[in-house]
Amino acid sequence: MSSTVQELNRTGKGEGQPVGVALLGFGTVGAEVFRLLTEHADDYTHRIGGPVEVRGIAVSDLAKQRPGVPEELLTDDARALIARDDVDLVVEVIGGIDYPRELVLDALNAGKSVVTANKALVAAHADGLAEAADAAGVDLYYEAAVAAAIPVVGMLRRSLAGDHIQRISGIVNGTTNFILDAMESTGATYDDALAEATRLGYAEADPTADVEGHDAASKAAIMASLGFYTRVNFEDVYCEGISNVTSEDIAAANQAGYTIKLLAICERLTREDGTEAVNARVHPTLVPKEHPLATVSESYNAIFVEAEAAGSLMFYGNGAGGYPTASAVVGDIVGASRNIVYGGRAPEDNTYAKLPIADAGEALTCYHIDMQVDERTGVLAAISSEFAKQGVSLRTVRQEGSEEDARLIVVTHTARESALREIVNTLTSLDVVKEVNSVLRLDS
Ligand code: HSE
């Protein structure tokens, strides 16, 4: 990168100067970004202080029909497009990790700001990308990476920058919320609900990323990093998906006044020695029906933030889909373009707090344990003594079924995940416990 480019990044191109954009990818999101940039060009010029001009669109298949897109804009050489002198800003909406990472690094290293919607990329490589952006003095924006147009990244980076966030819990995957909601409200089976979510276009191409919680874990990593000023990567997030949640679990939760949601939970926790650590996890969670997150139905997303001064805040809306994602991408294009025109930026992925990442076992939670037990005297005493040995107290115990086939549902008070896991291990080996049907966590 030349010193002229660095100087320009500091001072800006000047009011009225155009911002040249390279669009990488022209799928549902890319096409909608292009439509918005074209149809609302005048508004953006006013909002930015200069026009946004799309210099080129990198695609993998040049032969594909793309009505309304000038042919001369299309190229299959993304690297050459990024390198053009008249490109100031690169917009990555390709998806995947390795190839977009190379392109994004090319752009940043060449002193060009980047807007990406790629949560997997950011959750896996945020450190390297942020370093490259800071070294070049350019912006790396990724509002669309978490819950599309719901303003989560901007809220954490800017709106709540004056506060001290304690906890962020959210429904950040529409597919799994749709599936769990359909299972609860219509009695649909897991497979039927997943097929419907795929038909409606909510699920990723490979729904494993949705149903096993990986998509939500990427978003949890991003939210925890921003909320706690500490780098949290995808692999730091404990992750359990919804593929083992059964209709029986949903019915049992319902009966006890809960609804099951796949939550991404990011929180500060205080260790026994009084120091703080960060915990991020994704798992099916029993949420009390009166909690605002319990009311989030279909494929909607919601993020619930608890902060010292602001108190509790909830952000709700469509967290996926071409249009909402494009809205967030174009919002970032406007923000990054303002800096390109007027100059000035500051490192936004600040990880100064460097809190240690807590092990999943350190989390504080409650367990809802559903098991088949023998129906004879002393069974309850044998089971409850295992909880007592670990210092875990029981909140409720419910028994159902016949003499031969008794079902016991135990809900604990808050305890360390590690102690609760140990109890479950012991329960499975007790003679009186025929089977542990399910173990779910409860958000109290
Ligand atoms: N498949 C994701 C969802 C889309 O269901 O929410 C956005 O990450």
From TrEMBL:
Annotated NCBIfam families: PRK06349.1
Function recorded in the entry: Catalyzes the conversion of L-aspartate-beta-semialdehyde (L-Asa) to L-homoserine (L-Hse), the third step in the biosynthesis of threonine and methionine from aspartate.
Pathway in which the depicted protein is active: Amino-acid biosynthesis; L-threonine biosynthesis; L-threonine from L-aspartate: step 3/5; Amino-acid biosynthesis; L-methionine biosynthesis via de novo pathway; L-homoserine from L-aspartate: step 3/3
Enzyme class: oxidoreductase
Binding site for NADP(+): 24-31
Protein name per UniProt: Homoserine dehydrogenase
Binding sites annotated in the UniProt record for L-homoserine: 204
Coiled coil: none
Swiss-Prot/TrEMBL keywords: Amino-acid biosynthesis, Methionine biosynthesis, NADP, Oxidoreductase, Sodium, Threonine biosynthesis
Needed co-factor(s): a metal cation
Pfam families reported for this sequence: ACT, Homoserine_dh, NAD_binding_3
Residue sites binding NADPH per the record: 119
Span of domain ACT: 368-441
GO molecular function: homoserine dehydrogenase activity; NADP binding
PANTHER family listed in its UniProt record: HOMOSERINE DEHYDROGENASE
InterPro entries: ACT-like_dom_sf (IPR045865), ACT_dom (IPR002912), Asp/hSer_DH_NAD-bd (IPR005106), HDH (IPR016204), HDH_cat (IPR001342), HDH_CS (IPR019811), NAD(P)-bd_dom_sf (IPR036291)
Family per record: Belongs to the homoserine dehydrogenase family.
Source taxon at top rank: Bacteria
CDD domains: ACT_HSDH-Hom
Taxonomic source organism: Corynebacterium stationis
Reaction catalysis annotation: L-homoserine + NAD(+) = L-aspartate 4-semialdehyde + NADH + H(+); L-homoserine + NADP(+) = L-aspartate 4-semialdehyde + NADPH + H(+)
